[in-house]
């Protein structure tokens, strides 16, 4: 089980209705923040999930509407009593951006480790974080977060493999045991792999084909829908963003379970008016709003 | 007549109840912004006074709660269509801070002129802006804004000085006229100086004695009151801030007309509970809240 909260659902500039790009993932009490636009701290304060337990901050790119809130948040995390290191992941150039922004918060009571454009998946705070280079007007990466699920205990298999009953619990916990000169491995008492929970977060970008594989089978695909109207496709192309319909096409091709559109242009006052432009392509579409919370569970 | 709006009345971190330090001054449609904490743009959007006409941004100091919103605001001002240069005033070091923060908004359609710790008053957008070095944990300056008032036309004086009636209007507008070989000056038809409107803004600092002269006779003295309780004086001393009572003492000694306390610590949920700690010293005290608007007029 994992909880997510969309802290800000707007793009460009913060408004009274929508703060800027930010998503909080809460897994077993540890937090991963994705983007930190203006208003992130206010939404976090309303949610009340706490600041101290943020272990990782994933930044999609260095445009103001995705990162302005970062230095203030880093200060608040410091004031919350955190002393353990914090990891910031971002695209190429993120280290310089973070270091520049820290001109206003030079002293923090914890270390910051910065990882630029990771080419391999990272296992942090119980999740596997993967990144994908996107196609925006500045280096930008999308993220996926995968929570693996332990296989079930398989009693028939354990008996077949002649595993002593006294070892079943230990092996089930994932430990290897050597007993009476024989080596017992967890796979001897466990069933086949089970699907975990996958969340993907794609903003800001044009709908490039590599996204489809990257978001494959996501339980929740959070995707930018900067423009609701289909006829704003030219704006989407010029500004390297997507329309609702383009986000829905990706969701369909990626075989995701649910699409959550976000990052709406402030010029679009009522995104609901255009929801059908996505839902007619991918029915299980919901529109983002600030502090929308979802709990994702393992499917059976 | 001048309008002011307190855009954010909190200190430290933004909360759902209070955005961070920011004040907007609107004089004849031109705007001066003082500080730009997180949430500034949201309050501005609610107010609806516009972004394009911000000519000057005065920053008190480079702590996050006073400047985090700056890069986002600069982008929004750019998107509003502004192409005229914009002036940023701040303490020593502000140029480096602004340049660092601009890592996320490197391209703007207007020039930025930066003035560090001005030793002389500046006349911009119809106001005279003065700065005073304060005593905080980082270089910090307070500001005063003065709108001068033209003297009244003095008919008796004009007749006494034998000014031809045909020149009265021109001289009253402030122009010098040479007529029939004789030089006429505005002072020949104008009465004595009249007091203008003075607004002063002092945060963050300990209550140093130079503040008293600097805020002298202000119509509105906007002052930090980070701590409401008198017994938090030790915290105020340690963190280089002020209590409500200290702000009120300054207001009293400065002979100001009205005191507006702001920059409340987020730990103080109900500043109203401590209002009397200021009002018992300086009765004409009001407590800041986000988007509190005041219209100041010339006194007669």
TrEMBL record, chains A, B:
Binds 2 Zn(2+) ions. It comes from the Bacteria. Pfam families: Anti-Pycsar_Apyc1 (PF23023). Zn(2+) 2 binds at residues 65-66, 204, 263. The active site is at residue 65. Its EC number is 3.1.26.11. Zinc phosphodiesterase, which displays some tRNA 3'-processing endonuclease activity. Probably involved in tRNA maturation, by removing a 3'-trailer from precursor tRNA. Homodimer. This is Ribonuclease Z. Belongs to the RNase Z family. Keywords: Endonuclease, Hydrolase, Metal-binding, Nuclease, tRNA processing, Zinc. PANTHER family: ZINC PHOSPHODIESTERASE ELAC PROTEIN 1 (PTHR46018:SF2). Its cofactor is Zn(2+). The keyword Transferase does not apply. CDD domains: RNaseZ_ZiPD-like_MBL-fold (cd07717). It catalyses: Endonucleolytic cleavage of RNA, removing extra 3' nucleotides from tRNA precursor, generating 3' termini of tRNAs. A 3'-hydroxy group is left at the tRNA terminus and a 5'-phosphoryl group is left at the trailer molecule. Zn(2+) 1 binds at residues 61, 63, 136, 204. The gene is rnz. GO terms for molecular function: 3'-tRNA processing endoribonuclease activity. HAMAP family: RNase_Z_BN. InterPro entries: RNase_Z/BN (IPR013471). It comes from Clostridium mobile.
